[in-house]
Amino acid sequence: MTHTPTTAAIAVCNNYSFTDEEGQEDPTKITITLTVDFNGLAGRVGLAVTFPFNATMAQKQAAVRQACNSALNNGGEPNVTLTNATIQIVGLPV
């Protein structure tokens, strides 16, 4: 059975906390949980993303995009790269 390659994703942000990548309290960072639904082979995955508290929207989007692409590459689609235009991000803090 063949699978359609992934061409888009919906990333839903939730569970915000002032913690670092290791889960330790850090008032200068925000960690969010992403639930990402890919429209192809990768399906649904859960990810954690951390960025500085004062990150710009572009930096936050880049962190989400990088996490999504890493999940795709580790999930069996190494030649797929999604962009801001192909990842719909829901709930990203301003």
Task: Give an overview of the whole structure.
- By secondary structure, this protein is α+β, with helices and mostly antiparallel strands.
- The chain has one domain (9-86).
- It has 1 helix and 4 strands.
- A 4-stranded mixed sheet has the order 3-2-1-4, covered by helices on one side.
- β2 (29-38) and β3 form a beta hairpin.
- The termini are far apart.
Arithmetic mean pLDDT? 93
Largest sheet: 4 strands, mixed
Number of helices: 1
Structural class: alpha+beta
Instruction: Compute the CA-based radius of gyration.
Output: 14 Å
Beta-strand segment tally: 4
* Portion of residues within helices: 10-25%
Short précis:
With 94 residues, the chain is α+β, with helices and mostly antiparallel strands. It has one helix at residues 57-74; strands at residues 9-17, 29-38, 44-52, 87-90.
